[in-house]
Amino acid sequence: DQSEQVRAQEVVDEKERVGRLKAEEARKVQALQMTRARIREQLSRTSNERYTLLLNTELQQIEGELAKLV
Fold this sequence. Notes:
The chain contains two helices and no strands. By secondary structure, it is mainly α.
């Protein structure tokens, strides 16, 4: 009986841990999506070639991170 309770608590703890990890991952994805939108907006407004190159590099990194998470 006690071992069943311990096992049940372990299952609950694991579900909570997984839920926290999923929530953290969702926050990361949302932050990356917002950053990507900000970079795209900046790209649409700049005419500076060096800044454009920098933004495109950042955009590629963000999209790579998103691809790993999604």
